[in-house]
Inverse folding.
């Protein structure tokens, strides 16, 4: 008697937008297949916990790693069907945090894994490959890293992700084919052939790679396309009505800030940067000028929040696109538009140079152009992949040197940037901004790289709980340079950083500020404070988290 085939369970796991969108194309096309169940854990989806797009689907709200409900559902499905196989779709760059603990659990549950699909997280992955190309000696450590990963997966059950330096995440992310049948999905897999220092890696990986094609949206049935729009929280009919008559429009992309910019953009005036961009698009003679006075559509960064709201209010003639909307939706719909300009984003990976009037590069101060283009990875990437020609890249500092702007964004506008991070009534009155509802804003004092290293696991836990976490970096510390250098190796996009000088200028106080034990002089930086040990003992870390949770109970702050 022929034994029935095992029931296939597909798990889609991702906390961010770009991999989620790629996974959605697969989910919508295949999740109705017989003898399958799909469990989705998309952090950026608007689906609610437990929501279903169809009867063989269930969604779980989560952070980076799977929630316990996913494991409970797997066990229940195995009991129901007798045998199951698992297919996993996950984020490439965060696979050590998300995929590794899941595979470890599946190994000891004895649930076979049929296939892994790993998806890029936009320009982030490409910039990590650039870094690896600049330091090819790191490839000599690859075998040792993957050997540690093999031990992690199979030797004993684990309760945390696969640990290692942040810079190793790209090596882990591109090593899964050693252990399971694996496909890697990238919009521009040809980057592997454009970096000679990575030839040995490319020779091993290219046969496992597939190119993401947004045109696959056309292969979906109408009800499947509706699922995709529902999952990303965009009303298709409203979007299409908004775009009527915009065939000659220009889409302006906004930007945000992240922990890697500890010495630059993160501590400065993001709002001012957007003002200068929009002003010079309309200014005749400016390198940013776009002729013909086209309609401007503004697409803020998904993490731009109050910056986006402020810009839309200040420029009422802009047509705002939903900030949370993946720009690739317009490519799927084949929406006609004249071009996309502004700050570089993952969207540029799917565009031709004819669609890009310019890219504004904000990071450098007054360094020569050739130095800026060589040092800033996003611009290097744009040139390497032929996304633009060099003449299409405009450096913000060049506008300053030409005398077209009176003050560069890095001089005087810290307060505006930080005002966008909190909603205490004193700052709210001073800024005139309207603030969304959020939870407490938490600050963490950092004066040495070891302090960040000690805190990182606690930060992960707090971010999973939904707390916005911000690093307050002491620029007067003798180790400030070492802190910034360390941040350049940190591969994560869920943290922001400001200098203490920036925080002081903004008259900014955190709802709860975590400080090293014995530093009473730092307590004034928060309305509530809790202590941690720089060496990061487990007991002290737990005490710090409890202090933060108690602060949430004691203070009712509308955000």
């Amino acid at each position: 008697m022929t034994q029935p085939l095992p029931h296939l369970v597909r798990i889609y796991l991702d906390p961010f937008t770009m991999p989620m969108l790629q996974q959605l194309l697969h989910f919508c096309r295949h999740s109705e297949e017989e003898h399958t169940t799909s469990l989705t854990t998309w952090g950026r989806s608007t689906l609610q916990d437990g929501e279903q797009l169809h009867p063989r689907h269930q969604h779980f709200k989560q952070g980076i790693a799977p929630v316990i409900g996913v494991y409970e559902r797997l066990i229940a499905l195995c009991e129901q069907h007798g045998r199951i196989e698992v297919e996993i779709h996950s984020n490439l760059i965060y696979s050590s945090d998300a995929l590794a603990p899941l595979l470890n659990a599946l190994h000891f549950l004895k649930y076979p894994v049929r296939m892994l699909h790993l998806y890029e997280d936009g320009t982030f992955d490409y910039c990590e490959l650039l870094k690896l190309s600049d330091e090819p000696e790191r490839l000599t450590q690859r075998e040792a890293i993957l050997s540690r990963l093999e031990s992690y997966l199979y030797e004993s059950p684990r309760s945390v992700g696969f640990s290692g330096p942040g810079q190793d995440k790209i090596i882990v992310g591109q090593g899964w084919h050693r252990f399971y049948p694996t496909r890697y999905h990238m919009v521009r897999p040809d980057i592997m052939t454009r970096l000679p220092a990575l030839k040995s890696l490319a020779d091993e990986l290219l046969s496992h790679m597939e190119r993401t094609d947004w045109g696959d949206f056309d292969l979906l049935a109408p009800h499947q396309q509706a699922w995709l729009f529902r999952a990303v929280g965009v009303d298709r009919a409203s979007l299409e009505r908004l775009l009527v008559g915009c065939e000659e429009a220009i889409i302006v992309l906004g930007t945000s800030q992240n922990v890697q910019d500890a010495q630059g953009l993160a501590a400065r005036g993001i709002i001012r940067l957007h003002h200068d961009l929009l002003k010079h698009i309309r200014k005749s003679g400016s390198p940013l000028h776009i002729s013909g006075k086209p309609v401007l559509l503004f697409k803020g960064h998904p993490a731009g929040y109050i910056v986006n709201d402020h810009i839309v209010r200040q420029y009422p003639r802009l047509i705002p696109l939903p900030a949370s909307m993946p720009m690739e939706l317009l490519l799927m719909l084949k929406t006609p538009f004249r071009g996309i300009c502004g700050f570089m984003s993952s969207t540029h990976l799917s565009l031709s140079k004819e669609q890009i009037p310019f890219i504004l590069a904000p990071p450098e101060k007054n360094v020569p152009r050739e130095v800026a283009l060589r040092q800033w990875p996003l611009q290097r990437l744009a040139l390497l992949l032929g996304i633009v020609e060099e003449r299409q890249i405009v450096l913000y500092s060049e506008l300053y040197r030409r005398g077209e702007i009176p003050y560069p964004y890095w001089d005087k506008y810290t307060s505006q940037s930080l005002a966008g991070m909190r909603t205490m009534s004193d700052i709210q009155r001073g800024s005139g901004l309207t603030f969304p509802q959020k939870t407490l804003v938490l600050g963490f004092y950092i004066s040495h790289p070891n302090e960040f290293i000690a805190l990182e696991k606690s930060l992960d836990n707090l971010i999973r709980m939904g707390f916005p976490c911000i690093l307050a970096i002491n620029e007067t510390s003798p180790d400030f340079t070492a802190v910034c250098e360390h941040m350049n190796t940190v591969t994560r996009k869920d943290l922001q950083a400001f200098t203490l000088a920036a925080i002081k200028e903004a008259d900014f106080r955190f709802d709860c500020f975590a400080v090293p034990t014995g530093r009473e002089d730092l307590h004034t930086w928060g309305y509530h404070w809790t202590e941690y040990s720089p060496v990061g003992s487990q007991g002290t870390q737990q005490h710090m988290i409890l202090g933060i949770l108690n602060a949430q109970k004691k203070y009712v702050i509308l955000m």
Q: What stands out?
A: DSSP finds 22 helices and 18 strands in the chain. The longest strand covers residues 7-14. The CA atoms of residues 373 and 379 lie 6 Å apart.
